[in-house]
Fold each of these.
Amino acid sequence: MSLGTGGGTIVTRATGIRSKRIWQGKLELTGQRPGVDKGNPEEKTRIRRSGAGRKPLEEKDPKLVEDLEKLVAPATRGDPMSPLRWTCKSVRKLAEELGEMGHKIGRQKVSELLAALGYTLQAPSKTKEGGNHPDRNAQFEHINSTALAFQQAGQPVVSVDTKKKELLGDYRNAGQEWQPKGEPEQVNVYDFIGPGGKVSPYGVYDIFRNEGWVNVGVTHDTAEFAVESIRRWWHRMGKVQYPAASELMITADGGGSNGYRVRLWKVELQKLADETGLHIHVCHYPPGTSKWNKIEHRMFCHISENWRGRPLSTLETVVNLIANTSTQTGLRIEASADETCYEPGKKVSDELLCSIKLDKSTFHGEWNYTIHPKGR
């Protein structure tokens, strides 16, 4: 427009744009483009004239969006008559199903429609913890206040639990580790239990000192094994750090080898109290809340990170990998192998259970109790 006559030819040579397009641009600048309402501000910003181009597929096929929603809506997932009830709802599969319903559509358009409807790809979220006990929060507050009182008194507080059992041998371990290119660690194709069997790492985590002990058992995860692990922690680490301790607080899950209903757990704790002279206070987490046990996210997770991608070929390998686990926050772990054979299924008589010197707390005595040493 500024070049005047012959300007269109110059612009065509400089840009390669056809003269017809330049002429249409000149009309747009002067508001003389055919079909454009000069009084409508929206029309002045459009590239195409209103109504130009192909109509959207959902306008040409009004039932398309409705049928797509029926296939993926949460309300139809439990319906056995839904065509995708028992299949993977990928965009390709959805496009195929819509095609069988008489709609002509590709997987890309299905993806665009799902996004417009507010659907996204999501994995299941682990949020359900089973039964929600009415005193769940109160028990957490009780554990916290008791632990702080022990800390102020200079008494030890430990969190205990059994880590996931691991196969011994050349088995695949989750995760990746640096290896020369094209030379991955060779492991067995199948995870059948071999001659090495399984190991049960039982951990004792000192909450306030950020130190842990792991007793790696090779037989059964029993209450006897659990208390023996605590005993070994006390003789190896506990009494060194707390020479004047007269009490010990243990936080544990509500189930497993250290569950609040396990009779043998209390019997073995009585033996430990008699040997050490410690008054052992036990606080169990409410049912379904084991993931809140501090040992899980302060110690066990770092052990799993340390041995990721490595086959746990021997018992010595497991012990060394655990013992060499550390963090920037100062976590220190010691470990040892426990090759004692612990027999499962030991029965505890009512008479033996009544002989335990046990005091139940006024608040949920089944979860919170103290075992005193006898004759002291």
Amino acid sequence: MSFIIFSDPVSTPKIINSHPAPLDPGYPDFGGRGMHGLVTHAAVLHFYKQLGRPTNFTEVTLHRVNEDYDKGPRLVYRRVPIESEDTPETLQVRVKDMEIIQLRDFWSRYTETGVIPHAPRQNRLIGDRAQLLEEAKRIAIAQYPKG
């Protein structure tokens, strides 16, 4: 988790967080209390396993910090491949690599343009599977109690 505080010339200071999984502000997602470090990656892998169908990606999400934990507007995101043999540890390596690339690209664009993008999710991430998501989070927190 990375918090970045900055000011632009026409507004108040902003705080941006890099989250290592998909977020869908205002809807069930892989954010919230306890969702950090290996817990997040374990929750993603458990969720997709419970669905009974493979998925081939997770996301790295930059979002504004607001009063609701991990619910600030999405600014940018990048997909990260999930391999069939992934563990939370192996997935974390690729996610961290992508976080570095995404942060570098975000700040480069912001420096050049002064514009902060906004990337709302067009389709709901979890939909009617919120119960499966909560179970995946519970399992992941039990598996990695210290994150």
Amino acid sequence: MPILLERPELLRAETVHPAAYLHKISGYPLLISLYADGKCYLCELQRGTTILTAIFDKAFTFNNDRPVKLTSNSSYLFAYNGDQIWMSPLPGYWSVPSIGTGAGDYFDVTTNILSIKESVNPGQRSTLDIMVNNRSGEWDAPGSGGIDDLALGSKVILYEGYVISSVSTYQEAQSYFVDSWSYSRSPNLATFTIHCIDAWGLLEKYRFNRKVSFNYTGATTTYSVYELIEMLCQAIGGSLSYISRSSFIITFKPVIEINAGETAANLLRRLLATVPDTIRFDGNTGYVVYPQSGDQSSYLLKFPVT
């Protein structure tokens, strides 16, 4: 039986121990345990291949001085080398969080703002830094007192406009989410800075904890590009809608392999590269747009302040 690995340079033929153990867990790809150069390699059969034309992807590696045999029950995978037993919970398939219920209470920080710095980067993380006056120490304890609604993940709405003769004219420009905050003190000045990211930033922070496959041969459920993007939006607590969309984005169901550690942002860019549609975010709600020559012009506004 040929054994083809995702990275064959990892296991040279002359270094592989003759013992190789196969194990099949119901609902999961076939596993194989190999030994080479003092390490054990647990690999899984790539979806869409068979045992006769097997391509195995490296799933896990650990140091050991001999091959390990594999077994499992309904909850755990076990590896046994003759003296020791390792156990690990069975990996779960990717499941996304349910859509959130939205924001709670609001509070206005406009009167305390010393500066705003916004960095707009289409298709990748954009940031917003809000520096406020903390001379009286009112920002010393986020989560209590007058700022008890400030927490990591809090939604921050940026308004842009102008004031003429005490009349304020402004509109909502974009929404961000609190990622962290910091303090700075110097003579006669104490500041509190709220560091925020947009939906692309949230997608960059979301990483898959295991290998996931979609639309592989024999899959019982298949997903269109639009449905996969919708799940990504739900993964950051948002939702997906559309202003316009192509027929291709709702009919094309590509075979997608997601590696452990890949970000949701990278996967979204991969999916968008397969269709003629684009996406824009309002907060963590994504809107698909199918650009057409007859579309009305739109403009990207950037607030030029630091």
Amino acid sequence: MMDARKIVLSAFICMLSILTAGMSHAKEAEAPFNIASKAAVLMNPNTGQIICAKNPDIPIAPASLTKIMTLVVAYDEIDNGYATLDDQVTISEKAWRTGGSKMFLAVNSKVALQQLLEGIAVVSGNDACVAVAEHIAGVEEVFVEKMNRKASEIGMKNTIFKNSHGLPKKQHTTARDMALLAGYYINRHPESLKIHSIKEMTYNSITQKNRNGLLWLDDGFDGLKTGWFSAAGYHIVATAQRDQDRFIAVVLGAQSANKRESIADRLINYGFRNFETIEALDPKQPLAQASVWKGTRDHVALGASQPLKLTIARHKIKDLVVQNDFIDTMQAPVKKGQKFGQTKILVQDQLLATIPLVALENVDRAGFIKLTLHTTMLFFTKPPYWGILLLALLLVAIVIRRFAIRPKKKKPSNYRKRGDDFP
């Protein structure tokens, strides 16, 4: 399970780097409808592609969206063996006194880590955040350092966390960074969606509903987190899956809880209705072949260095173009995975991705006999065709020589020697 998660995570981060390299100067498309919030992003976490955006990089206080990172760090630590879901966490006075939304933990009580994570995801418990942070890192401040390191690791370039719960303390994020975080979280810890889709939770005889109203709207919605801060407005990171595809909508700074949900719902439905995720490149399928000089084989198959999925507008799929640029001849030996060039994916002259084009197999260096025959064949069959030219010159020389040494015929005599009889 751990290996599978690492593979998925590596693929997600690799995909982000591929798309960033291929589209570093491209501007995200705007949604084809008005978005009544300060910022928004629609992203497909299966490919890492941002479909459309509004003000994706303006800084905004994250409020309770901070808790997504708190959960990410907690689950990472569990995966790394530093904690378990069954751990009994002692609730400190600091956790108990934390203001804002609460799970209503009792001081000095012991609560299973699993239940605290549910309290963060479902009822946005600030007290549960502090309790988890202290259990994982000893003190909340060290846990926050882990949060910021993780943000840097996954490419959140414009985010700073100051605490584990999101209460105002000069911290900020962006819609783009939150989309990256949500994509990382879902790909690395898909099991977490089980707690984010819980509609209500009862603890200490107090029942509270999940603040994500989209969970009641459509069975496809299964997360992720809401937030609110008076100066920033109403936030939501929403996600839904249909069939094998998934979209994430980040809405920051809406005017009300209903507005943030309405915008997120509209963005996600726009994604499902108009876009499709396809397997653009399969690393097992050859895309081209290159000649190999002095090898046991004359050619080597070339293919993509890794699988590539792309989310494309349905009406543009037929316009997808794969363009290969590579060295057409290489001297043996050739190693599997050796880079020969690059392959580009374009749609209507728009560059979507650029990834390495590599050898799909090994080609060893040929032995003496094979190498001699191969060199001879190349001498005669490859430009500038020195072998053919030399052979032609040799034939000309042979013809000239034969003419030069050919014996001359004697001319018949017109007179007779003395004494010959005359008729």
